Amino acid sequence: MSALNHVSKFLFLFLLELLCFVQLSSLIVTAISTIKNGEGSSTLVSDGGKFTLGFFSPITNKTYLGIWYTEDTTTKVWVANRDTPIPNNSGQLQVNATGIVMITYDEGNSIPLNSDEGSGNVTATLLDSGNFVVTDLKYNRVLWESFDFPTDTLLPGMRLGMDFKSGRNYSLTSWLSVSYPSSGAFSLTWEPSGDSGELVIRQRGQIYWSSGAFVDQGFEHMPSLKSPSLGYQYNVSHVSNHDGNYISFNVTNQVVARWQLYYDGLIVDGGNRVLDDFSDFCYGYPENNGCAHRALPKCRGSNEKFVKLRGDFTKGKGKHYDNYDDNSSLSFSDCMEKCWISCDCVGWTVSSNGTGCATWSGDWKFSNSTDGVVKYVLVSESPKKTNIWLIGIVIPVVVLLAVVCFWYLRRKWIRSQDCLTAERRRREQFLHELISPVKCDDGSELEDSGREGHDLRFFGYASIMAATENFSSGNKLGQGGFGPVYKGKLIDGREVAVKKLSNTSGQGIVEFKNELILIAKLQHLNLVRVLGCCIHGEEEKMLVYEYMPNKSLDFFLFDPMRKEILDWKKRLNIIEGVAQGLLYLHRYSRFRVIHRDLKASNILLDEKMNPKISDFGMARIFGQNTIEANTERVVGTYGYMSPEYAMEGQFSIKSDVFSFGVLILEIVSGRKNTSFYHLDRPLNLIGYAWELWKEGVALELKDPSLKDSIVANQFHRCVHVGLLCVQENATDRPTMSDVIAMLSNETMPLPSPKQPAFFTGRGTTERNQFDSPSTNNLTISIMEAR
Ligand SMILES: *[C@@H]1O[C@H](CO)[C@@H](O)[C@H](O)[C@H]1NC(C)=O
Ligand SMILES: *[C@@H]1O[C@H](CO)[C@@H](O)[C@H](O)[C@H]1NC(C)=O
Ligand SMILES: *[C@@H]1O[C@H](CO)[C@@H](O)[C@H](O)[C@H]1NC(C)=O
Ligand SMILES: *[C@@H]1O[C@H](CO)[C@@H](O)[C@H](O)[C@H]1NC(C)=O
Ligand SMILES: *[C@@H]1O[C@H](CO)[C@@H](O)[C@H](O)[C@H]1NC(C)=O
Ligand SMILES: *[C@@H]1O[C@H](CO)[C@@H](O)[C@H](O)[C@H]1NC(C)=O
Ligand SMILES: *[C@@H]1O[C@H](CO)[C@@H](O)[C@H](O)[C@H]1NC(C)=O
Ligand SMILES: *[C@@H]1O[C@H](CO)[C@@H](O)[C@H](O)[C@H]1NC(C)=O
Ligand SMILES: *[C@@H]1O[C@H](CO)[C@@H](O)[C@H](O)[C@H]1NC(C)=O
Ligand SMILES: *[C@@H]1O[C@H](CO)[C@@H](O)[C@H](O)[C@H]1NC(C)=O
């Protein structure tokens, strides 16, 4: 059976089970979720190292068997037992000699995955395509494969549609919520019609969105599938013959190709791009982007929608009631639907574990508050006055302007045609795409029409120069990771921060534009908003941000006088705000963004001392370029960098979690991690905190200037969570959603932190990153079965 070893790698950590294996001459893969229990866990890694099969536990007391990307453990591409989770970490995956695949737990309980028995000579292999296959070697027959049981993700080589031989109609069903794998509200199916067919998303059985017919490698309502700026090309094939009627896809030169149906009904691909063409939700969407036309409930106007706000409902004078439905099969979209069709409902939210709905109906007043829980509040936009004014005056004026504009552009074009270089044409093209329709303007200020779902503005170079007084040194606010930042005052009096991106990025205009739109779509209370950009010539690119009057966290935190302003309540608010912002970047935004340079100086503070993460998306802008170029310098700051990132260039959301842990410790102690000196103590704050923790005197870490404002158990909890975040092993560190649960739920028991990474390097550094993008950071041991 040594051939087995060539095909698959099984990891056995318990010798005992190995003996069992030998005696029973069956294949036993044992694995225990590493999240809960670091010891004794094992996984199965595909031959090329791309995929890993193992147990994971996204929710307390619920363990699932799944397949994920070895490089990106948060993206699960398959879940075996989504609707039958295991109650604790006693799960094992067993494949016996006749090829029966079973998840067993608690001695005697089992969930069989197949029933077709083989000859007694079988092998179970996780292929590098992400397919877990059980093959009968004697008859060379596939007994069972995970590709036959898709969950929410379609990988290259998987089929969506009907297979006549097996009688299966393959479809995807979304997760229930962001961290809840059980079957959710949305499904994606292939529905043939005539020679072609279309993709259809249903929400609890009702048609929600459809792609339009498959024509010429594309779908009408999936324009991004054929977008030339993707950097990779889709090859979607439709098979219609006696074997079946289905589609499948592949991409050229892209490592993580997938279509994933998110819990909120969006289809996201491996480049984290949304493929179905609507922003947010298919509710009352004005244009036909494939969204199904659904009759509005009588009581709802087309100008009504839900807006995500943080705050509280307070009772009004009129009739009102609230309701909590703890049905754990209800999630986000169900709650929205529930509120939408109920006439007097004015707001809703989902409980923090992602299931169950709270709704508010009748006379409630909503007030914003940064302490409140996020809620979705019904707002009605005042209807636009479409009347004689529009028809009589506005339209003729617009037509006239368009004629003048056309004439002007044409004249300008004729004049400058000769000297237009290819590069400049490209830029013109960019402008055209970004600001359509093009307005007649000569560089003062252009405004985007907002039609592309983002309200990005394009600023003229002249207006930026004027705003920043020609980038005068007096206006310089600081030096960001990618260039200097200047304060500016626009003509309308608004204050902004302008970041000049350094030229070393080597990015082309097209990439810049893609990334820009991406970060413009990242909108969260705890992220600094990008207002727009400015491009001058080929080289100079600038980002325009909202201006934060209170500078950054380090300005207060590490100054002996100013730190007094930050009492405990404010610090806790900052920790929670940063956590929310980071969670959004990691999980809730449609593009998974890894910040990579989270530190006190990148946390800006608004007038009420609410934190806003800045420099977000920068990581991605440069990250993508780096993957292609392989030569850019590493970004990040020692002291905040996780060991695996600093030493091996590997980064994941867990490296941000590490930085966040350092930040917590800095916030509670008022000291920098790097410039830390203490006699007879390890040389950095992490080490110091760890020693105090072990000695049971964590309170000594307290910033003396906090005085009495401190709440001891909250302080203790923060240090505890901070230490969990800076653990040496990335898989031990909690995710940001865990962190938020830990911080917000004061009774939740926390695991004890393991020894953190003692990282005593200083200063910033330059080095190559992505030296070895395929390195696997799990410990692998291979046993040869005989
Ligand atoms: C997890 O299971 C244990 C033991 O069955 C139980 O005591 C605990 O309350 C459960 N926790 C949750 C969050 O359900
Ligand atoms: C798992 O939980 C069950 C009860 O739900 C218990 O009988 C069993 O001993 C537990 N196993 C482990 C490994 O904790
Ligand atoms: C494998 O498991 C199935 C189902 O439990 C059983 O019927 C079969 O006999 C087992 N095969 C061997 C070789 O133990
Ligand atoms: C299992 O099948 C393979 C391929 O046919 C063969 O090489 C191997 O010897 C067989 N093993 C046993 C135990 O029959
Ligand atoms: C997808 O394309 C890549 C190369 O572009 C190829 O190596 C791979 O085998 C293809 N996968 C499938 C399932 O066709
Ligand atoms: C597959 O299922 C979808 C959704 O239920 C259905 O519309 C479609 O017709 C089915 N395909 C076949 C070939 O029956
Ligand atoms: C697309 O995929 C099909 C089947 O996998 C293959 O036959 C065809 O050559 C591919 N086309 C391109 C342009 O790669
Ligand atoms: C919970 O919600 C699901 C999905 O809407 C529904 O099918 C089920 O009947 C509900 N259960 C209860 C007890 O209301
Ligand atoms: C989710 O939380 C609510 C309370 O916030 C609880 O009633 C419900 O049982 C939880 N659901 C699950 C599946 O843990
Ligand atoms: C709450 O905040 C939102 C967005 O920041 C704003 O549009 C809204 O007017 C605010 N509402 C109140 C009552 O202040």
Automatic annotation (TrEMBL):
SMART domains: B_lectin, S_TKc. Keywords: ATP-binding, Cell membrane, Disulfide bond, Glycoprotein, Kinase, Lectin, Membrane, Nucleotide-binding, Receptor, Serine/threonine-protein kinase, Signal, Transferase, Transmembrane, Transmembrane helix. Residues 471-748 form the Protein kinase domain. Its main location: membrane. It catalyses: L-threonyl-[protein] + ATP = O-phospho-L-threonyl-[protein] + ADP + H(+); L-seryl-[protein] + ATP = O-phospho-L-seryl-[protein] + ADP + H(+). It is a single-pass type I membrane protein. One of its GO terms (molecular function) is ATP binding. It comes from the Eukaryota. InterPro entries: Bulb-type_lectin_dom, Bulb-type_lectin_dom_sf, Kinase-like_dom_sf, Pan_app, Prot_kinase_dom, S-locus_recpt_kinase_C, Ser-Thr/Tyr_kinase_cat_dom, Ser/Thr_kinase_AS. It is an enzyme of class 2 (transferase). Belongs to the protein kinase superfamily. Ser/Thr protein kinase family. This is Receptor-like serine/threonine-protein kinase. The lineage of its organism: Eukaryota, Viridiplantae, Streptophyta, Embryophyta, Tracheophyta.
